[in-house]
Amino acid sequence: MALPLRALLFDLDGTLVDTAPDLAAAVNQMLVSRGRDPLPLAKLRPHVSRGARGMVGTAFGLSPGDEGYEPLRAEFISVYERNICVHSALFAGMAELLETIEARALPWGVVTNKAERLARPILETLGIDTRSAILVGGDTCARAKPYPDPLLHAARAIGVAPGGAMYVGDDLRDVEAARAAGMPVLAAGYGYLGDGAGPHEWGADAVVESPLHIAHWCGWTGSPRL
Fold first, then answer.
1. Which 8-state DSSP code applies to residue 13?
2. Is 13 a residue of the active site?
3. Catalytic-role residue among 11, 170, 171, 174
């Protein structure tokens, strides 16, 4: 990295927290209410990083701009918001990684395209909201990822240069946003990833297969928590 590591920033869905079970449950509730069979989590999981677009698109075959999409999107958000963190949990090893980051007196934060009102309750329910130095949602800045604005906003708020912060995300737009911000970036190979080109083709500094791998990449292999 160009600068010493001063902070870590994480995408939310598919990187910091496994939110797929609750997002899948919301869209499956919509399917069942229409007399249709629910979809298996394995089919929905790859599309979670695209939020409502991914869930509605996979379940109903509609995209933004299609007739009938907006009412389904609004219904999905409403259903999901009522049950936003029932089964969601930190990815295995993430709790230990956060403790290690904090033990090294480094701030960490969350930069997501999820609206702040949806992201904050997840952090609160998991008990990490007061530990996160910053939460930047998809509606915090005028432009969301893949634009660099949210990452630059987070770096300013934490008080570090973009080159001294590292971003971790599980979507191509995460890498694009970090590159545009001049920020080192790791692709979370354990995340949702979508159905396009694989993470090794995104141009990240590395692809990590677990939170433990993130620690190894940072050179923290000797930590007692990892």
1. B
2. yes
3. 11
